[in-house]
Write a structure and sequence with these properties.
Length: 224
């Protein structure tokens, strides 16, 4: 699937559009409610629609008020999962926006299916605390996106994984920004997902170009 159009959720100052500027993606809409970033976005992207509250996005998509893009990206509020907070997970209205994000993706899928298009490509980011959330937010998130009939449950999800679900394939991994040119330690969870013909592991996981047997072997020596 060739990605051409994007919708952005919890856009902030719209860092994704800067990071992906070399790909010539067409951002169709963004979603931000905080006053300062909203004002900033009006200046930076005066012609780009800010749909505002993400809770209204599913209906807007289903009513064809906004486009159903190829890819939807977003980092829903992390305060409910952060080690620095109370960690109330889905019992916190901010944490519950994780499930609203899935509702948006499913609404987008519905319209795309009517249009004869593939499932939405998903890019989502959050803090690593969501992996061990006591309300199982990440398990619910995976289940809804993958189309699982039952809620996936683990005491703590691994730092990296791959799920091939009935509806969607999902890969996730914790990456630290300090290894990507940022002068700070910033560990974050990244999720990439797409339809059954999409392989998200090719995006998030490195592949060895050579078989291990091809690498030179060195004897182990101990010197006293």
């Amino acid at each position: 699937m060739m990605i051409k159009t994007i919708g952005s959720i919890c856009s902030g100052i719209e860092a994704a559009s800067v990071a992906w500027k070399d790909f010539s993606f067409d951002f169709k809409w963004l979603s931000e409610i905080a006053p300062f970033p909203s004002d900033f976005l009006k200046i930076k992207y005066p012609d780009l629609l800010n749909v505002g509250d993400m809770n209204a996005i599913p209906k807007k998509i289903l009513k064809h008020e906004i486009d159903a893009p190829d890819l939807i990206c977003g980092g829903t509020p992390c305060q409910a999962f952060s080690l620095a907070g109370f960690q109330n997970g889905l019992n916190d209205e901010r944490g519950n926006l994780t499930l609203k994000f899935c509702e948006i993706i499913n609404a987008n899928d519905e319209i795309r299916k009517r249009q004869g298009k593939e499932e939405t490509i998903v890019f989502w980011e959050n803090v690593e605390g969501v992996l061990k959330d006591k309300t199982n937010a990440f398990g619910c998130f995976l289940s809804l996106l993958a189309g699982c009939k039952k809620e996936l449950k683990m005491n703590k999800f691994p730092n990296a994984g791959l799920l091939r679900g009935p509806k969607r394939n999902i890969a996730w991994r914790i990456l630290d920004a300090k290894y990507f040119g940022i002068p700070q330690q910033r560990r974050r969870l990244y999720v990439v997902a797409g339809g059954k013909g999409f392989n998200p592991e090719n995006v998030l996981f490195e592949k060895h170009e050579k078989e291990f047997s091809e690498f030179k072997k060195y004897p182990l020596r101990f010197e006293m």
